[in-house]
Structures are given as C-alpha cells and as structure tokens.
Amino acid sequence: MSQHEHVRVAVIGSGFGGLGAAVRLRREGITDFVVLERADSVGGTWRDNSYPGCACDVPSHLYSFSFAPNPDWPRTFSGQRHIRAYLEHVTDTFRLRPHIRLNHEVMMMRWDNDELRWEIETSGGTLTADIVVSATGPLSDPKIPDIPGLASFEEAGGKVFHSARWDHDHDLTGERVAMIGTGASAIQIVPAIQPKARSLTLFQRTPPWVMPRMDRAISGVERWLHRQLPFTGKARRGLLWGIRELQVSAFTKRPNELRLIESIAKANMGRAIKDPALRARLTPDYRIGCKRILLSSEYYPALAQPNVDVVASGLAQVRGRMLVAADGTETEADTIIFGTGFHVTDMPIAQRVVGADGITLAEAWKDGMESLRGATAAGFPNWMTIIGPNTGLGNSSMILMIESQLNYLADYVRQLDVLGGRAALAARPSAVAAWNRRVQTRMERTVWNAGGCDSWYLDANGRNTTIWPGTTAEFRRATRQVDLSEYEVVRARPLSDAKPGGPGSGAAKGAVA
C-alpha cells in the first residue's frame, strides 16, 4: 500500500461483516475501496477460533449469505474448517482479493475536520478514506481475567492459552488440564480433549443451559437437489429463519414460556448425568435464554467421565501449578485453557477511533455503547460499524443482521452521492439518544434483562448494549434506508473560512447544513 493512498471506503476486518461489506460495495458499483485485515488471511473469528471441536450453533443454511448460498454444506451444523473455507470461497467468487490488505492492523484512525475524511494509520502504511466501515466484530479480541498469580503458573513450567489462540503445537495427551469457563467454546472443547487428558478440571462460575445438538450429515441427495434446484435451498433457509422468528416473542415478551424448553434441557442433562450431586452443580438457577442457550450432545457425557471434575466456582488464584477456586478448592494442572470470551462491550478498536471532537470512541462510550440503528455514532461522521451496539441475537443467525446493516451501508453511500461534493453525514446526538431509549425500553422485559443472570450481554454498568430486542425482520425494516432527518449534513467550507487546528482537533472547517 502506497503512502497517502486515498480511497472512497476503508473496511476494517475480513470476517463475515467485512467481506459482506466488500461484496455489497462492489454490487453497488463501488470499486474504490480497501479491506484492512490485521492477520495474514481472511476469516475473522472463524480463522482465529480453530480449537478442537469448533463449530457453529446456527444451522449451516442460515449461517451463510443469502447472496452466496452454499448447496454443499456437509453437515446441518458446520464446523470451523468448512465455514472458513466458505469465506475463502466468497472472497474468490466476488473477486475481493485485489481489495484486501493483509497484515495491515489499524493502529489509529482520526477524522479530519478540514478535509472531511478519515486518516488511517496501519501497520503497513497510511491512507485516507471518505468513509470507514468498522467490521472488526465483537468476538475478535480474547478476554483473559486478571487472576492473581497467573504468571507464576508459566514460571513453574505450565502452559496457558485462550481458546481463540489455540496452541496446536502443545499436546494435551496425558496432561492435567484446567478449563476455565463454561461458554459456547468450552462446551465444544471439553468433549474434544477429555479422551486424551489425564485429568480435566472444569472451573464453572455459572452453569449454562445446554440443549441437544441435532446435527447430522447432509446427504448427497440433498446437496444434489440444492445444486440442481436452488429454490430448495432457499426454502430450507426460509424455514429455518421462520421457526426462529416465531420463537422471538418468548425471549422478548413472555420469558415464562421458556419453561418448556428448560424441561427439555434438564432431560438432556438427566440422560447423561446420573450423579445427583453433579446434576445439582450443573443445573442453572436462572431462566433459560438469559445467557445464550448452548447446543451439545457430547458435553454432559464428557463431564460424566471419571477423569473429569467440575468445580462449581470460578478460578480465584494461582500458586505455581496449584489452582485455587473461589470456594477454596485446590487443583494441580499442567495446562490452563481460558474459554472466557471476548471484549464485547468494551471493544479495543474503540480506543483507536478519534472523532470530530478529538475524543476516542471509547471515551464517547465510557458510560456504555450507543449507536444509531446499530450503525453510526454521534461525533464520528462517515463512520459505520457492522455488528454494532444492540445488534446481537440470542436465537438466530447474525448473518441476517449483517445483511440488514449492509442495506443501510448501501443507502448511506447513495445518500452521500446524491448530496454531491465534499460532504459527510454525522449522526445527530438526539437521534442516537432516541433510538437507544426505544431499544432499552423494549429490553426491560426481555429474558436477557429479566432472566436472573449476569451475562456477557451486559456492560460494566449492567446495561444490555449487545442484544437486539426484536425479530430480524423488524431490524431489516429499521435499516432499509437512511433517514436524513437523523443526520447532520456536514460540508467543507471555503479555505478562507478555515479555523486553526489540525485533523481531529475539533476546530472543524466543515459547515453543518
């Protein structure tokens, strides 16, 4: 990448969101864009998470782009290898590679009030862009809790890594392994590594609700049918989508209706866990759905094996090779695997975005993330995020939400083209506040807020800034097009009107229309 390159659009990240944005830009006739990727290949979270057993908990035909159907999914729930291959296929099919800059980590981006554009510093050079699309995703930066004494474990010869940074060179055979956390990654890792570990200790702060995983191989006949008659694949996707849309009201309006689902989850546990004491430790005390419902038919059978121990408490302290739980339980280990999630409500990329007033997005969001329609933030003109605040889902496919946001992105660019000249759109603070009031009001009676749990959906202030409290169809309607009344149109002033001050200084040359 040459120094001082200028593009119409800079997309940050090459996971589903970033690649989807790139495809949509090309379909809109825009080829003057780059995709900046910090790693050496595309794939996002499906590149980074390569741990044993890694797979998706959304059906394959729903966890793919509507504009890039894959008739050859091998299983109803696809594994990481096949999803990553699908993203590589999308990259090649839509001729995106010439636009992708690998090994270009964004170090800082600053809004230039004078030029009405973004200055972007990357590990591979500097460029400017009229529009930035941040598609780094909430599941991109692993979170390891600050455990007192953790450094002493490695000093004593132990091995430590996060599930999203799996060390494939480290052999777990015959080792004493400690698994920290019981989220979506952990319930896949535990069955995959249990047979080879000498012992496996699971540190569980809160037990998850686990439903059976109805996974199976997709037959050759089914795949042939989807290739020869594409409408059959669309029908399958539509059915999967419709079932999940019908479930939304139980999550958002009538959480008590989820008790039937709880009984199915308890039966799933009871089939594998015969020890009453272990069953008690594994039974949640909150409404199902409050935390993400997990899918596995192997997790409970693995926990019932003689080389597995469940500690119903979080890891509190490490003393050399000795791990001490919050309840005082002591366990020796050779390897610690953290399945402790990601920086979701405090995304590190926010520290690297400096807006029109000279403050970072992290500073603007210090009291909690807020955006307009999950896309734009007040004080950050011509900046848009994919999978932004309150766009997450608890029961369906995030690809549906991403495609809705791509519709919004396409219309955003069209509106700028119609305005003509050097112009920017800045989300009005009043519009951002109004949108978030509506979202948070709807959130109050959802299972995610009222279900009696403390989940990663909530930020440090206990506010749910992660989940969308409605159907995917509602979100698509809300993001079909840009409402210009929610934005200020900023235009460049003549040079003679300029005030002193550099990029991001807050001394704007732009004029609000």
The helix-and-strand class reads: alpha/beta
Segments where pLDDT lies below 50 for 5+ residues? 498-509
Strand element count:
21
**Number of helices in the DSSP assignment:** 15
For the record, the CATH architecture of the largest domain stands as: 3-Layer(bba) Sandwich
* Helical residues, percent: 25-40%
InterPro entries: FAD-bind_Monooxygenase_sf (IPR051209), FAD/NAD-bd_sf (IPR036188)
Family: Belongs to the FAD-binding monooxygenase family.
GO molecular function, one term: oxidoreductase activity, acting on paired donors, with incorporation or reduction of molecular oxygen, NAD(P)H as one donor, and incorporation of one atom of oxygen
Pfam family, one: Pyr_redox_3
Q: Can you walk through the features of this model?
A:
With 513 residues, this protein is an alpha/beta fold. It has two domains: 285 residues, 3-Layer(bba) Sandwich (FAD/NAD(P)-binding domain), CATH 3.50.50.60; 183 residues, FAD/NAD(P)-binding domain. It is 30% helix and 18% strand. Strands 1, 2, 3, 4, 5, 6, 17 and 18 form an eight-stranded mixed sheet that branches. A hairpin with a 4-residue loop joins β14 and β15. The radius of gyration is 24 Å and the shape is globular. The two termini are 35 Å apart. About 2% of the residues have low confidence. Its cofactor is FAD. Keywords: FAD, Flavoprotein, Monooxygenase, NADP, Oxidoreductase. This is Baeyer-Villiger monooxygenase.
